[in-house]
Amino acid sequence: MGNSKPQVIEQPKPIEPVVVGKPNPPENNIDDPIKKGDPELDPMEQQVQTVFDELMQSINELDKDIEEMIKELREGSQQ
Questions:
Q1: Is the confidence at residue 1, as pLDDT, over 60?
Q2: Most exposed among 5, 22, 29, 70, judged by the fewest C-beta atoms under 10 Å?
Q3: Long-range contacts from 28-37, C-beta under 8 angstroms, 24+ separation
Q4: What is the pLDDT at residue 29?
Q5: What is the DSSP letter of 2?
Q6: pLDDT at 41
């Protein structure tokens, strides 16, 4: 006979969001996005902000294109 211990299965721990850098001051809210070339941002943060801005612009353009396509499809199906 062996020493049998109950097997304990650990549940994976939830992933906590990781905050990198310093938090934005209260006056910087969503209505006042960080400007490119902000002297408080280090070069890596500036690069990330620039890429993020370009990505958001691309997403907005794609969203407009998709809305146009949907409109054309609806008009075509009504004829």
A1: no
A2: 5
A3: none
A4: 46
A5: -
A6: 78
